[in-house]
Amino acid sequence: MKPLDVMLAEFVTPVLRPARFRKTGRTYRLAAKNGSQALITFQHYALSPLSRTGFIVNVGVVVEALRAWMHNRITPSSSYPSQPSIHDSFWHDVIWAPDDVAHRIDKYRSEVWYFDNAEGAARCGRHLTRIFTEETVPFLTGMLDRGEQLRVLHDPSIPQARVRVGRNYAGETLLRVDDGPSAELDTALAEAERQGDDEFLSWARTRLDFTSPSPPRAR
C-alpha cells in the first residue's frame, strides 16, 4: 500500500466508518434518502523529494438533480457515472492543513498536507481525527438536509465560488425538483419561462414528471 493509503486505513477509515461513510478508492461517501451525497476525497499532490507524501482533502455535497443536469449537458447518457465525484458537488471546500503538517511555498495558508515518515503520518491522522469528529462530519451530515442546502444557496456570507450553481431560478429548481411539486418550485419554473430558458425548463419539467409519484388509479 502507498503511504497515503496506509494513513487512511489507520486513521481516517476508523473515524468515518462509524459515521456511515463508505469508502471507494480515496473517497468516502455518505448517502441520504433524498439522493444527496456528502463526499470526502483525498487527492494526491506530488511533492519533491518523492519521499514526501502530499495530499489535499476535498469535501463536498452532491445534489443528484444538479449532477444530472450537468451531465445531461456535457456527456452522453450512456456514460453517466454510477457514483458522483467531488466535481459534481453543489457545495465544495477544502480542509486546510494545520501549520505543523502544511506544505508551504509562501507565507499564505496552505491546502496541501504532507508527511515524510510514520511520525508525520500519525500527526496528520490525529489532526484529521479531530477535525472530522468535531467539525466535518457534523457539518456534512447537516448539509444533506434539503432545507440546509437551500439555506446555503441563499446565504450571502458563503462565497459564490463555494456553491456550484447560480443563486437564481436554476439553483432553486435544481434543489427542489426531486422533492416534487411545490409553490416555490412553481415560482422558480415561472421565472425560467420568463427568462426564456427553454432548454432548462424542458429538462426540469421532464425530471419533475419522472421523479414525482404517480397519482393512484381510480377504481
Brief descriptors of the model:
219 residues; 6-stranded antiparallel β-sheet; 7 helices
Could you describe the 3D structure shown?
- The chain is α+β, with helices and mostly antiparallel strands.
- The chain folds into two domains: 3-148, no CATH class; 168-219, no CATH class.
- It is built from seven helices and six strands.
- Strands 1, 2, 3, 4, 5 and 6 form a six-stranded antiparallel beta sheet that branches.
- β1 (22-24) and β2 form a beta hairpin.
- α1 packs across α3 (118-143), α4 (146-154) runs antiparallel to α5 (169-176) and α5 packs antiparallel against α6 (183-194).
- The chain is elongated.
Structural class: alpha+beta
Radius of gyration: 20 Å
Given the structure, what is the number of helices?
A: 7
Order of helices and strands: HEEEEHEEHHHHH
Main beta-sheet annotation: 6 strands, antiparallel
